[in-house]
């Protein structure tokens, strides 16, 4: 008798991603395969948060740095292309993702759950979240607070320069999880 071996079920991690030092909190809850490399997780985070992937980034997990290797060898960073998420974190793990070393956007990430993939589902999925991501190059958390104050007050001396700089309407409360999921699936 020949027995068919079933393939192991893919593990899905439920991640809570929160942007540090921004009030009110900007956050997302995403479902990603544990087999994703950290490079692929970076791309998912870019799309679900609303960033444009214009800057450097790194992950800090258990005191180790992961990212794109420095061609000059000046920074000790483990290669994110060679590192699977499920090899470095598990349920209950906490780690940090930093994007844009100038503005220094720190994201606190918690692995809230780990479970088998639904065979009828496509991943990644942005389940929920709150608030729009700050615009690129706004100046980090302090610059973002200044930006929001200026936009909210037509009498503020920086109101018009900030409106011109952003070049589009900006609603800090706006976030649509389905749109984030579509972007992450299409571009990751």
Automatic annotation (TrEMBL):
Transmembrane segments: none
Boundaries of every Plasmid pRiA4b Orf3-like domain copy: 11-176
Any Pfam family the entry gives: PRiA4_ORF3
PANTHER family per record: LEXA REPRESSOR-RELATED, TNPR PROTEIN
Protein name as catalogued: PRiA4b ORF-3-like protein
Source species taxonomy: Bacteria, Bacillati, Actinomycetota, Actinomycetes, Micromonosporales
